[in-house]
Amino acid sequence: MHHGEVFLIGGGRDEEALVDAHAGLADALAGGTLLCLVADDGEGIDEGRWRGMLADAGVADVELLRIASDRAPTPSDLDGISGLYVAGGLTPLYAELLPPLRGTLPSTMVYAGYSAGAAVAAEHALVGGWMLDGRAVCPEDAAEDLDEVSVTAGLGLVPFAVDVHATQWGTLGRAIAAVRSGLVPEAWALDENTGLHLANGRDHEVRGTGRCHRITRSGQGVLAEAWPGGMPVDP
User: Which regions in the chain score pLDDT beneath 50?
Assistant: First the structure.
């Protein structure tokens, strides 16, 4: 499992809150270059959005790379890079494009993911869907163009599944269902404008204005716990 610093952000558009959600990223990079991957689903990419958000977070050196079905990322794209940032968009598309990077990130490389980029950081990535065993588990609008709740291989940087826009899109229910059904062993559902920072693969801290929700198995059911921004996570 990856032991470099990991920053997982649950999405959102509040510029000030997103600075808090990204807290520590610039320091972790220590002046190094951050490569930002943005998936193009056929409608182009908003380069200014990602550059602006990362600049607000204090990241001075950003290289932005468009990825798409005709241009998947390769391990050589990481040469000379101190950190990798995977942006937001259609989560299944990122899951389709990123497998060439699985297992190639140096253990010291900083990783940050926003929305879809947070979801695909997982060993078992929860990429979308709104139905499980014929029942709705979250709003259809949060389905990411998938019907059945879907889990696929992610980058393998964290051992738990990640869902995003938890409170705002109602995806906490999907994360709970995924754990309850055994699709994933554990999940974290992140609110918008909120980040989960992991250091050394062990120490967790929540940053930003929302909450991060941890879902684990407990007996025949699940246990859901929530931490607001500014709090370290109990072991």
Answer: none
